[in-house]
Amino acid sequence: MIDMSLIRYQKPETNWSVAPLRQIFNLRGDINQVFDRMFQFPFDLTRDNQFMGGWVPAIDLYENKDVLTVKAELPGMKKSDIEVSLHDNLLTISGERKQESKEQSSEYRTERFVGRFQRTFTLPTQVNAEKITAAYEDGVLTVVMPKAEAVKPKLIPVTVK
Amino acid sequence: MNAIQEQPVCTEPATVEREYTSPQVNIYETNEGYTLEADMPGVSKDGLEITLEGNELTLTGKRQQVKPTGADLLYRESEPEDFRRTFELDPAIDTTRISATINQGVLVMTLPKAEQLKPRKIVVE
Predict the structure, then answer these.
(1) Quick one: pLDDT at residue B15?
(2) Which fold has domain B5-66+74-113?
(3) I need a labelling partner for B30 at 20 to 30 A (CA). Which of A18, A37, A89, B43 fits?
C-alpha cells in the first residue's frame, strides 16, 4: 500500500533546497559580503586607481604588538624620489619614477610604469610619528611605525578582593 | 618579423595552481642591440637566475619573503609567487656577450647584436 502523506505544495521559486537555486541564494549572500567588506577598515586602501591608468604599487600591511610595518613594492626608484609622510593617522607614500632617456632607441615593449604615484591610507592604530623609520632595499620600501604608547596592549592586573 | 618574442610560461591547464608571476618588462632596440629592463621587487642578485637554452632566455627571480618578526599580516597586495618570464631571442643577438645587472629590484640586461648582423652600409666601389 502506498503511503501518501499530505505535504504542502511549495511553489518552485521558494524551494531553496533545490541545488541550482541555492547557488543563486548563496550568490546574494556573497554580494552582500563584498559590500560589507568595502566598508571595513581600511576601506580606502584599494587599487581601483589602476584602471585609470596610474601606477598603483602593491602595499602590504603588517602588525605586531609594538609596530606597524608597511612594505611597498617600488622597484627602480632612487631613494630621493620617494616621499613618506604622516598626517594625523593618514600615511602617504608617493614619488616619481623617472625614465633615464635612452639614446636613439625604438621602444619595442614598454610595460613598466613611469611617472608619479601616490598611495594614501588610514592606519589602523595610532603611531608615534617621531619614531618612524623607512628603508629601501631591493626595490622594496619598508616603513616601520612604532605604535603610540597609549594604544599598545597593556596587561591590566586583576586584583581580587 | 624577428625580434624578442615572448613564450607563454604556463602550459598547464587552468586548474593547476600557478607558481610564477610575470615581471613587467621594457625592451628597447638600437642598432647595437637590445636592452631589457624587468621589474622584480624583492629580488636580489642571489635570488636571480638567468638561463639561456638555444635561443630561449628565461628569467627567474625568487622573492625574499621577509616578514617582520611576530607580526600578523593585516593586508596584502603583493603576490607571493616568484617571478618568471621566457623570451625567444632574435637570432641576431650575440649570446656570448649578454650581460645583466640588478639594482633596487630592477634587472637590466644588455643583449648586443652580433657584429656581422648589424645594419651597416655597403660601400660601392
Answers:
(1) 45
(2) Immunoglobulin-like (2.60.40)
(3) B43
